[in-house]
């Protein structure tokens, strides 16, 4: 059986603040096969690497720019130029209402000197590491909320694809997967924008009103057939791939066989060694279920070293 790829979820985010160059460098050193980039746009249309369209859960934006929130009291990346974003300190993820860390045992929130990177800066950093370390780690960019970005006046997807092309990520043989939750955008990426590289349809739950994506339908035979016509694989929630019985035995979700029947790769999110799903007795039990029972092709993880060590 071919070994599944280790996808560093927001970098080595279990150890240092997510989507910082430190997190990506650490994941590279740990041996991750692919390093993930979530991508949103600045006010001046520069793609930057952040998980959310908001800044207030991972930075000191409320302290540095207290009057720049919208009517919902949130601070939006797209309301700040790149120069302004570069002034912000990036922290371990926290709850804005309380200031408490989402993962209290991880890197101390509010400490360190971490900054926001552009997509181009991060791709250059990764390629430099590939050269100096003699080992190629691929990239795994996600285009975040493309409909919302267009409503704000920025068509994010072609901007991202252009940056990827400048760094040589255009074909299926290149070490890159492009991912998106928006099913219409996945179709657009392949058919309208002509992207020839590897493409992943992310799958959540329910129905996304903004994009019109019906995830329940995507999980059906008909939906997966449509996905397979444009994409190379799916990125489902880990709980849709494996669960555990009352006695701790792994239970593989129906989505797995259905997707495999269409030849789709399966890259679930997210394995967290410090936040295992219900029923998983240990990290080994979780990885056994994913790799030997569900036979996933890759796995997003906050702790890439744990998965790398398991696969040795």
UniProtKB/TrEMBL annotation:
<protein>
    <recommendedName>
        <fullName>glycerophosphodiester phosphodiesterase</fullName>
        <ecNumber>3.1.4.46</ecNumber>
    </recommendedName>
</protein>
<dbReference type="InterPro" id="IPR017946">
    <property type="entry name" value="PLC-like_Pdiesterase_TIM-brl"/>
</dbReference>
<dbReference type="InterPro" id="IPR030395">
    <property type="entry name" value="GP_PDE_dom"/>
</dbReference>
<feature type="domain" description="GP-PDE">
    <location>
        <begin position="4"/>
        <end position="311"/>
    </location>
</feature>
<dbReference type="GO" id="GO:0042597">
    <property type="term" value="C:periplasmic space"/>
</dbReference>
<dbReference type="GO" id="GO:0006071">
    <property type="term" value="P:glycerol metabolic process"/>
</dbReference>
<keyword id="KW-0319">Glycerol metabolism</keyword>
<dbReference type="GO" id="GO:0006629">
    <property type="term" value="P:lipid metabolic process"/>
</dbReference>
<keyword id="KW-0378">Hydrolase</keyword>
<dbReference type="Pfam" id="PF03009">
    <property type="entry name" value="GDPD"/>
</dbReference>
<keyword id="KW-0732">Signal</keyword>
<comment type="similarity">
    <text>Belongs to the glycerophosphoryl diester phosphodiesterase family.</text>
</comment>
<dbReference type="GO" id="GO:0008889">
    <property type="term" value="F:glycerophosphodiester phosphodiesterase activity"/>
</dbReference>
């Amino acid at each position: 059986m071919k070994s599944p790829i280790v996808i560093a979820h927001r970098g080595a985010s279990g150890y240092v603040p997510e989507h910082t160059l430190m997190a990506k460098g650490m994941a590279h050193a740990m041996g991750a096969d692919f390093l993930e980039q979530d991508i949103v746009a600045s006010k001046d249309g520069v793609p930057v690497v952040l998980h959310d369209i908001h800044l207030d859960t991972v930075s000191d934006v409320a302290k540095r720019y207290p009057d720049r929130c919208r009517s919902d009291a949130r601070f939006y990346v797209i309301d700040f130029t790149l120069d302004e974003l570069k002034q912000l300190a990036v922290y371990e993820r926290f709850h804005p209402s309380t200031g408490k860390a989402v993962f209290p045992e991880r890197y101390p929130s509010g400490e360190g000197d971490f900054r926001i990177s552009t997509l181009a800066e991060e791709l250059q950093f990764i390629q430099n590491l590939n050269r100096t370390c003699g080992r190629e780690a691929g990239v795994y960019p996600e285009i975040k909320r493309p409909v919302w970005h267009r409503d704000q006046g920025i068509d994010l997807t072609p901007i991202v694809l252009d940056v990827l092309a400048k760094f040589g990520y255009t074909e299926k043989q290149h070490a890159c997967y492009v991912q998106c939750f928006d099913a219409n955008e996945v179709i657009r990426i392949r058919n309208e924008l002509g992207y020839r590289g590897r493409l992943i349809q992310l799958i959540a739950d329910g129905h996304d009103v903004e994009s019109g994506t019906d995830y329940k339908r995507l999980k059906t035979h008909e939906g997966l057939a449509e996905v397979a016509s444009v994409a190379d694989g799916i990125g489902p929630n880990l709980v849709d791939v494996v669960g555990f019985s009352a006695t701790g035995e792994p239970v593989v979700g129906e989505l797995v066989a259905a997707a495999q029947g269409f030849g789709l790769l399966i890259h679930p999110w997210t394995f967290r060694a410090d936040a295992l799903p219900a029923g998983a007795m240990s990290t080994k039990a979780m990885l056994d279920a994913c790799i030997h029972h569900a036979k996933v092709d890759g796995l997003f993880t906050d702790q890439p070293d744990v998965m790398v060590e398991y696969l040795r």
